[in-house]
Task: inverse folding
């Protein structure tokens, strides 16, 4: 028997078509801007001028944009006609990680343009969305108990990627401590505060409709997922949500509480490229990165951290202090590529993405510092950022903390 090759879903093809057309249009804009700057013959350090050409040249570029639009919309309409006929249940290997990565980088654009590739927030199990109605939840999770565990993935990842090298913290905790795990699937390219507010609402519905009385609620956030947890706790408190009364413990795995240096480095590149007329058009390439990524410059959690500000402009840390949730036991696990405390990789690299100080909540400004108890923090040495998902020592600490009385 010859195995059939998995088909791409029609909605995926439509999404890729829209993204491709937008990308081509963006390249045309970039070329036009560079054309204008070069034609103007500015000095090397001259300030950038307007991006648009004029006269016949402008007419040429407008005509190109018109053709791009007609082709793109025509193909999109054609694919939409075939969508009901072809069915949408087919998938292909690697689709979930690819979509997760794409949403991490361009998720805010995908959502704003109603692109079918944009991820919609869902609570899931085994990659399938859970219905948030009591009877349907009971049918979907017959083994649902009172110890509810919700796990949140990081930037450019998805809920199915909690399983790494054969290990899944959620499945292991279900086996060892009788938790019922549920996984959040979200568009990590949106602002953290946007996801935080949506997650708070999802939790409120989940807890109210859970098939068994919720005796204990535990949240585990990896990387950006930890920021979404803190944001949700903030907005849940504002809305007086009932799920916060059930929240017992939170575990942060490699969470950049005070940001990550890679995004701060990207911001400096934006500024340098924008500083001269010739390089200014190229600065657009850096500005395609999502709102979720720019939130990682300092670890933004609430709307006030970014609202009415140019997120690509150079600025200091303007965050509103957001403390850990009250009466909740919070734990932090950081990772370091160094073999021991104080060696060069430990001091310079952290886990390769998040510095130790950020993951442990340390900050020179006391108002922003996060005070984890000494017994509620641990550093995994010789460990990279993604290794936090599968290292046995990491799981051992999570298991011990959750097994202890709250």
Result:
């Amino acid at each position: 028997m010859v195995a059939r090759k998995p088909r791409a879903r029609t909605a995926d093809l439509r999404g890729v078509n829209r993204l491709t057309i937008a990308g081509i249009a963006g390249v045309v804009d970039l070329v036009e801007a560079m054309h204008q700057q070069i034609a103007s013959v500015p000095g090397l350090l001259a300030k950038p001028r307007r991006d648009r050409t004029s006269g016949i040249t402008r007419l040429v570029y407008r005509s190109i944009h018109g053709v791009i639009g007609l082709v793109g919309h025509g193909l999109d309409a054609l694919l939409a006609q075939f969508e009901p006929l072809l069915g949408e249940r087919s998938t292909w290997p690697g689709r979930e990680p690819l979509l997760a990565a794409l949403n991490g980088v361009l998720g805010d654009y995908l959502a704003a343009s109603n692109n079918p590739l944009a991820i919609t927030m869902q609570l899931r199990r085994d990659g399938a969305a859970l219905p948030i109605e009591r009877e349907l939840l009971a049918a979907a999770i017959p083994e649902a108990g009172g110890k509810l565990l919700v796990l949140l993935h990081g930037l450019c990842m998805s809920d199915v990627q909690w399983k790494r090298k054969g290990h899944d913290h959620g499945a292991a905790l279900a086996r060892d401590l009788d938790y019922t795990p549920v996984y959040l699937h979200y568009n990590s390219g949106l602002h953290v505060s946007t996801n935080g507010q949506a997650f708070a609402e999802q939790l409120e519905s989940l807890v109210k409709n859970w098939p068994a009385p919720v005796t204990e609620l535990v949240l585990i956030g990896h990387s950006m997922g930890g920021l979404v947890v803190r944001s949700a706790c903030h907005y849940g408190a504002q809305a007086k949500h009932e799920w916060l009364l059930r929240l017992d413990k939170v575990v942060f795995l490699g969470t950049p509480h005070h940001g990550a240096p890679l995004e701060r480095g990207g911001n400096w590149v934006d500024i340098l490229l924008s500083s001269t007329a010739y390089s200014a058009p190229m600065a657009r390439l850096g500005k395609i990165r999502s709102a979720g990524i720019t939130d990682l410059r300092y670890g933004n959690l609430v709307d006030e951290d970014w609202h009415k500000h140019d997120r690509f402009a150079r600025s200091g840390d303007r965050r509103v202090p957001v403390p850990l949730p009250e009466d909740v036991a919070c734990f932090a696990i950081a990772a370091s590529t160094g073999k021991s405390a104080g060696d060069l990789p430990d001091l310079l690299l952290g886990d390769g993405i998040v510095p130790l100080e950020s993951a442990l909540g340390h900050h020179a400004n006391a108002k922003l510092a996060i005070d984890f108890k000494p017994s509620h923090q641990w550093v995994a040495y010789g460990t990279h950022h993604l290794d936090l998902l599968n290292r046995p020592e990491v799981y051992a600490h999570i298991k011990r903390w959750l097994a202890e009385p709250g």
